[in-house]
Amino acid sequence: MKQVRAKKHLGQHFLKDQNIAQKIVNSLTGHNGYNDLLEIGPGTGVLTQYILEEGKFNTLFLDVDKESIDFLQEKYPEVREKMILADFLHVDISKYFPGQFAVIGNFPYNISTQIFFKVLEHRTLVSEVVGMLQKEVAQRIAAGPGNKTYGILSVLLQAYYDVEYLFEVPPNVFVPPPKVTSAVLRLKRNKTKTLGCDEKLFFRVVKQGFNNRRKTLRNALKTFELMDDVKSLTIMDKRAEQLSVADFVELTNYIAGGESRAI
């Protein structure tokens, strides 16, 4: 059986430690009772084997690397039709999973942030995520208000998910070894169905606030051309990194009520 070569342009670093692989798969909790599971970028199948051993999920394995799909279809012929050559970032995942599902994977470093933004797009369907990614990105997602690493993705994901920083993974357990330490996160969909504000505006306010994170919100949100009563709010003296999810929801409602012309 021809082995899969790690491809730099795809950000591939294949995990070789079986104990860590099993630990990652065991981190799935079945939160909210889902039966469907999507593995993103199975590569050489180090997680795949333990997912199949579990036997309790209807799993789809999605990889953009044809060499990986060919390898996995030969290695696991019993689920050959579940091995799909596709790019998660550009596929309509709802055509495979119309109901609740979970996501697992050793996410390529170069697209891990984009993967989480895609999860946000499908937040009504994605019950749980267990993913390994670069430590710094994982810390950013898990960070709370007042932390220098707290940012756009922290707020947006924590608005809809409970985020758990599970454990770290050293470079030497990969082929080829990356130059950074990795970490495993678990996200569980919280009970929030709607935020109680204009959610599209909420996303814009969060992004604009952090794009000018060194400025007070009064200056960071200048492009919204806010009314004077909104500009004079005490919250506008703060910077984006000081606000909790609830604070951003409150701010969004203020802006929606007193916004003269947002771009």
From TrEMBL:
Gene3D superfamilies tied to this protein: Ribosomal RNA adenine dimethylase-like, domain 2 (1.10.8.100), Vaccinia Virus protein VP39 (3.40.50.150)
InterPro entries associated with the record: KsgA/Erm, rRNA_Ade_diMease-like_C, rRNA_Ade_methylase_Trfase_N, rRNA_adenine_dimethylase, SAM-dependent_MTases_sf
Catalytic activity: adenosine(1518)/adenosine(1519) in 16S rRNA + 4 S-adenosyl-L-methionine = N(6)-dimethyladenosine(1518)/N(6)-dimethyladenosine(1519) in 16S rRNA + 4 S-adenosyl-L-homocysteine + 4 H(+)
SMART domains: rADc
Keywords from the named record: Cytoplasm, Methyltransferase, RNA-binding, rRNA processing, S-adenosyl-L-methionine, Transferase
GO molecular function: 16S rRNA (adenine(1518)-N(6)/adenine(1519)-N(6))-dimethyltransferase activity; RNA binding
Sequence positions that bind S-adenosyl-L-methionine: 13, 15, 41, 63, 87, 106
Broadest EC class assigned to this enzyme: transferase
Cellular localisation: Cytoplasm
The keyword S-adenosyl-L-methionine is assigned to this record: yes
GO CC annotations on file: cytosol
PROSITE patterns: SAM_RNA_A_N6_MT
Signal peptide: none
A Pfam family hit: RrnaAD
Record-linked SUPFAM superfamilies: S-adenosyl-L-methionine-dependent methyltransferases
Chief subcellular location: cytoplasm
Domain Ribosomal RNA adenine methylase transferase N-terminal: 20-191
EC number in record: 2.1.1.182
Family classification: Belongs to the class I-like SAM-binding methyltransferase superfamily. rRNA adenine N(6)-methyltransferase family. RsmA subfamily.
Protein's job: Specifically dimethylates two adjacent adenosines (A1518 and A1519) in the loop of a conserved hairpin near the 3'-end of 16S rRNA in the 30S particle. May play a critical role in biogenesis of 30S subunits.
Protein name per UniProt: Ribosomal RNA small subunit methyltransferase A
Encoding gene per record: rsmA
